[in-house]
Every structure is written in C-alpha cells, then in structure tokens.
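Hi R.,

Here's the chain you asked about this morning:
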Amino acid sequence: MIKRGDLQARLDLVDKVLLAKKTDIRMEVHADALAAAKEYERTLHQRFLRMGNILAGLEVKGPKGQGSQGGGFGGSQEIGDLIGGDGRGGTRSGNACR
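And the predicted structure, written out as tokens:
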C-alpha cells in the first residue's frame, strides 16, 4: 500500500513499526473549497466583463444574415440567458421584483 501511494507512511525496520503521517482532512477540504470559490469568482468576473462589453456596444458583430460565429453571445436574448432574465430587464416568468 505504501508503494502504490494508498498509505502515506514509512516502515521503521529497526524498531519494526509503521510510521504514518497524520492527514488533516479538514485542511484539504478547506483548500479544495477555496480553490473552487476562486474559480467561481474568476468565471463570474469574466461574465460580468462580457456583459458590460455587450451592453456598452463594444462587441464586434458579424455580417447580417449569418449566425453567431465563435460561439459568443450575439444579442439581447443571449444576454438575458446569461444573467437569468429575458434581456429587457424583466424576468422570464414575468414576475418582476416589486
């Protein structure tokens, strides 16, 4: 198990004991959660930048009559899909916050 890496330990052949490292599972879970949060924050920041560019009209649009090329967001309906609304400031279900 030690050679396969399943067990983080070493054998003391003089004293004939197994010396295992204590793993701090809480620390590992915390590090994984922190990495996931940083990735989520990075993705969210990119989406906000993309929405701002689209809403400011800084998007390069292709010729009319052709579909969206490059897989980007091409119009207000796609912006609505990105932010969870209908692209006109409302919600898809029509239940606006009052």
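Residues 94-98 have pLDDT under 50 and may be disordered.

Let me know if you need anything else.
M.
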